[in-house]
Amino acid sequence: MTSARDFGLCIGRLPTGPLNAITDIAGVTVGHHTVRDGGAATGVTAILPHSGNLFRRKVRAGVEIINGFGKSVGLMQVAELGTVETPILLTNTFGVGNCANVLIHRAITDNPEIGRRTSTVNPLVFECNDGEINDIQALHVRAEHALAALGDAHGGPLAQGAIGAGTGMTAFGFKAGIGTASRTMQIGGHEHLLGALVLANFGNAGDLVLPDGRRPDPRGMEQAEKGSVIVILATDLPLGDRQLRRVARRAGAGLARLGAFWGNGSGDIALCFTTADMVEHEPPTPFQPIRHLAEGRIDIPFRAAAEATQEAVLNALCAAAPAVGRSGRHFPSLADWLKENPLPRRSF
User: Which parts of the chain are coiled coil (predicted)?
Assistant: First the structure.
């Protein structure tokens, strides 16, 4: 699988995790299901913070809405309570309802007391509009596709590019989709990890800025910025939900480094969760201890969030093969552009 580093594009100062993927964080798994049939070029991607019962053992989280032109489900409760209690699904705009229903049914099956003896459940679904390539009006994403993505969830190396929810996505005039990256953080004598997974579907053609300063021109007709990008950050660093929102906000710095300005019609959303200090649905005592990073050290995860987000988007662009949209517009591969325009060799 082609990545940005295959072309000498090195991003930031922090070292990557072992896999340079969100699955470097222990317990985090990702699954994809791709739908290609009868005008469909879409799918679902699932992120599971851990393999246990998420409703019973929630993960702390914070969400940052950079620009809110989107139709996601579940963000309001995450912002209010600071926890995630279902897997996270990514899909296209019109697939949100079916994906949310799958998460609700799945949670009820595992927890029959939901909505009766205890609270309801907050499904978490994010979306981007893949209508440039996918026939979005046909409502291709169905419940079985979401279930298939959840069933495919695994750790280890991840497929990137035009797969799962990223199948029909484009960015900066190039074919794009799913990308991932990670960073290692040394804090207080301990090693921690932060990983990013992005659904990249944003940016005007000609606006992309590479880490070396080059600006690839896909020779596409410039259009108004009306795409979206979803950034899911995961870490094993103990952080409070307020701190997690602050880290999520720094995903915007990674997007800006790429040349994005978050246009009027763009839905740009970042969520960060931690696998440290999970939250019991029914805690055994009225008061619960919470560990969190000293604020004076938080610049390190800030940097990690910006760097991992930037690289994850570039990996999505490099891994995606060229495609032709429904209108006949050609979306080239960034990897092909980089092969045709290699970095000049330095002379010493």
Answer: none
